[in-house]
Design brief:
By secondary structure, the chain is an alpha/beta fold. It has two domains: about 150 residues, Alpha/beta knot (3-Layer(aba) Sandwich); about 60 residues, tRNA(m1g37)methyltransferase, domain 2 (Trp Operon Repressor, Chain A, Orthogonal Bundle). It is about 30% helix and about 20% strand. It contains seven helices and nine strands, in the order βαβββαβαβαβαββαα. Strands 2-1-6-5-7 form a five-stranded parallel β-sheet, sandwiched between helices. Helix 6 crosses helix 7. The protein is elongated, with a radius of gyration of 22 Å. The chain starts with a strand and ends with a helix.
Length: about 230
């Protein structure tokens, strides 16, 4: 079972959609669990202060080192990996999702304001990851992205585990076009090869389509694919 923790200032956001559908069923089957940690509970003053102005000046506020560290220390698990969702972190991708789906414990820290005190990151062995080159108001939405991509890789979560292996990024390429009934729709027909029943030809067609789409839409992925 994968045990996950989310450190947040807004616990009411979770578990939300993660407790419904396939993930809710997987949670009931004890394939994964989620603990939501309210960072404010680790504050020591009566006002539950979690942020302060940065030394050296600058706009915005930072999550305080003592509060966040206390929250982590009070809830840490032996052997867990802790990630801070940050735009300066290593870009989160399918390879990392696969890696984390094999972990027993992971924790995600949802940042707010202008970030967190750097000393927490260095003293608590926290890894920084980014879901993309853009700015979000908080780490909660990024946490949903990370959890979604990891949980669907857990054995038993999806109805058909084989579907995972045919998806975009699994082989370094974007996914090929997909078709279903009706066979003819608005005078457009399904490609003949998909109706042939020749599985070898279908496989070759899908690969050629994936390669063409990747080459056209994601030259960066195409260059990596050619090297591998």
């Amino acid at each position: 079972m994968l045990q996950t923790q989310v450190f947040t200032l807004y616990p009411e956001i979770f578990p939300g959609p993660l407790a419904k559908g396939i993930y809710g069923k997987a949670m009931n089957k004890k394939l994964w669990s989620l603990d939501v940690i309210d960072i404010r509970n680790a504050a020591s003053d009566k006002h539950k202060t979690v942020d302060d102005t940065p030394y050296g000046g600058g706009s915005g506020m930072l999550l305080k080192a003592d509060v966040l560290a206390n929250s982590i220390d009070q809830n840490s698990k032996k052997g867990e990996r802790i990630f801070y969702l940050s735009p300066r972190g290593k870009k989160f991708d399918q390879k990392l999702a696969q890696e984390l789906s094999k972990e027993k414990y992971i924790s995600l820290i949802c940042g707010h304001f202008e970030g967190v005190d750097e000393r927490v990151l260095t003293t608590r062995n926290i890894e920084e990851i980014s879901v993309g080159d853009y700015i979000l108001s908080g780490g909660e939405t990024a946490a949903f992205v990370v959890l979604d991509s990891i949980l669907r890789l857990l054995p038993g979560v999806l109805g058909n585990n084989k579907s995972v292996f045919d998806e975009t990024f699994e082989n370094g390429l974007l996914e090929y076009p997909q078709y279903t009934k009706p066979q003819i729709w608005e005078k457009k027909s399904v490609p003949d090869v998909l109706l042939s029943g020749d599985h070898a030809k279908i496989k070759d067609w899908r690969l050629s389509q994936s390669e063409a789409i990747t080459r056209d839409r994601r030259p960066d992925l195409w260059e990596k694919y050619k090297k591998n």
